Amino acid sequence: MAIPVLRRLRGGRRTSTVTCAAVAAVALLLAACSSNNDPGGGSSSGSNCSTQGSSPVVTLAAYSNVYDVYGKLISAFQDDWKASHNNQQVIFQTSFGGSTTQATNVVNGFPADIVALSLDPDVAMIQKAGLITHDWQNDPENAIVASSDVVFDVRPGNPKHITNWNDLTQPGLQILTPDPAESGGAKWNIVAAYGAAMRGQVPGYAKGNAADAEKLLQGIFNNVTVMDKSANDSIKNFQSGNGDVAITYEYAVLQAQHAGLPDQMVIPPSTVDIQTPTVVVDKNAEAHCVENIANAFVQYLHTKAAKEIFTSVGYERPVDQKDAAKGDGSTFPAIKDLFTTDEIGGWDQLLSDTVFGPNGAFTKAQAATQG
């Protein structure tokens, strides 16, 4: 069983071989894998890294929905590394779960060398713990490796006639969205609704009116019947027959459709550009003597070859916001109003004040729905 771990902050982002059996507790994983991490990949900055390991182990903690695409990315990177490094086989250990849970686990001791998280604040959490020491927001493309957008996964034929955020407030509707305390995807869903209202793109809700944005969120969350631990759990729950609509990542619906499932996607006229970061956890990578490999893998994610995998396997949009909004006319429809978190105040403000703060729109809306 994979160990869940957390996500990231900006304004405005089966796997390959493992040498340790998956375990249910961080302490067990640390104990089980300690002998494999010691030889390392040859980074001179870690302790006792003078000997090049024949099969260095790199640990990746990622958010839940990117299981398939990272499996492919890892496999391609392993082949390239082996061909250019004297047949050296890099082994990846992977863990997938709610982004914020993943980040929390890394802070609490999960030995991730790389984190692939859903949003900037989750990466910032790890940085604040002293585990990420470089200026990761100045990494290539600001550490963003791909993008997506928040959409509605509806039943075939869209029987509830859902086209915009205000349709999610209709009486009796059953909505699935993950828990924002554990899932980065949940935060994206809330920010998407809030931003659409604040930008004047939701009928019946005035532009720039925080009270109206709160009212929209309250109407939506009055209809939320299940909040799962992760976005992946949420969409799987929907696919098992629960609910009328799931608020989720675009690529999760596209993956389901390409797998032959009857999921039908509705892209609201205004939605947020989901920018997902992947970052080296410097302290852990140095300690495990794999800093050079971890950095090489993250750099690889910004190459043309990796971007093609993000698109063809992960169904993710380009990093560039304008290209993401434009779409490609087939797999990715154009989006009328694709905004970034920077355009609605930035993650710091959204988390501490306007949305998730003590008097934020979601905080007050959630209290009203529970009270």
Textual characterization of the structure:
There is one protein chain. With 371 residues, this protein is α/β, with parallel strands linked by helices. The protein has 14 helices and ten strands. The chain has helices spanning 26-37, 67-84, 99-107, 120-128, 184-198, 210-221, 231-239, 250-258, 282-287, 291-300, 304-312, 321-326, 347-354, 361-370, and strands spanning 57-63, 91-97, 114-116, 144-154, 175-176, 224-226, 245-249, 264-266, 270-280, 337-339. Strands 1, 2, 3, 4, 5, 6, 7, 8, 9 and 10 form a ten-stranded mixed β-sheet that branches. Helix 2 links the parallel strand 1 (57-63) and strand 2. The longest helix is centred in the first third of the chain and has 18 residues, at 67-84.
Largest sheet: 10 strands, mixed
User: Residue ranges: pLDDT <50 for 5 or more in a row?
Assistant: 1-46
| Secondary-structure element pattern, one letter each | HEHEHEHEEHHEHEHEEHHHHEHH
Mean pLDDT: 88
In total, the number of strands is 10
Percent of sequence in beta strands: 5-15%
User: Which descriptor suits the 3D outline?
Assistant: globular
The class by helix and strand makeup works out as alpha/beta
Rg, Å, rounded: 20 Å
Helix content: 25-40%
C-alpha end-to-end distance:
36 Å
Separate helix tally: 14
